[in-house]
Amino acid sequence: xxxxxxxxxxxxxxxxxxxxxxxxxxxxxxxxxxxxxxxxxxxxxxxxxxxxxxxxxxxxxxxxxxxxxxxxxxxxxxxxxxxxxxxxxxxxxxxxxxxxxxxxxxxxxxxxxxxxxxxxxxxxxxxxxxxxxxxxxxxxxxxxxxxxxxxxxxxxxxxxxxxxxxxxxxxxxxxxxxxxxxxxxxxxxxxxxxxxxxxxxxxxxxxxxxxxxxxxxxxxxxxxxxxxxxxxxxxxxxxxxxxxxxxxxxxxxxxxxxxxxxxxxxxxxxxxxxxxxxxxxxxxxxxxxxxxxxxxxxxxxxxxxxxxxxxxxxxxxxxxxxxxxx
Length: 326
What we know:
Elements: H1 2-9, H2 11-42, H3 45-55, H4 62-68, E1 71-72, E2 80-81, H5 85-92, H6 95-126, H7 133-146, H8 150-159, H9 165-172, H10 184-197, H11 200-211, H12 215-223, H13 228-256, H14 260-265, H15 279-289, H16 293-312
Antiparallel strand pairs: 1-2
């Protein structure tokens, strides 16, 4: 334990480690830029046109959405009044809707905590005074900029192919290859790994929060003999909880809105066996593949309610310094 602590305190070794990780991430970024140039040759233009349509769902006004969720609207014929028929179908007759909701919650529960944990760990390592910290922050933030692009999704699909780099590494370690596209759970974890890799934005927010915690708190804890874990759980974590809330809400909203990776990796089908059928992908398929725009609008409002509940309940599990222990 003492050896590990001495290794961590050796700033030269620590920053070399940072430089190595940053160099790897920069290399990946360059590869992605190269893939971006040939992406349109790999996938049909139809994929990009449909993706653009899906991303433009938010261009509709609130009034139009309120009308459409109560209508049988297929984009081609005149709307028909449906009342709550869309919700009745959604909650009582559409088994694939519940499947998409389950897959999305598994994606959120598995991806968001891992992403926040990794972002917090890197932020704590970067919370030091150094002239090179700005470079490292930029390198670590790079995946958040390019992570949602079509090129990254194509690259990710190739990395996790049957003869991809990931399976080659597993084979080199003496482990069996994983059929990432043959198992619903493995395919979902492939999407979760892509989500965790895009930790840069959360890391910067955590880093800003850590710098706002007075150093005098840690100095007093050291005088009292508090160890590293006590300082983290009794000082850092409580004072950082509003920042954790903000990051959790933003990442949860982003996770519910995830569309491009699931669409590209599953080729728009949500397979295998609906294992990657995220909520937004199913919403897109209902609206633009099956032309059930009224049903898709009703699904969008259910998503809005789920996200609103997260905001409403936040006061019960977040510490605000101005409100004591509430």
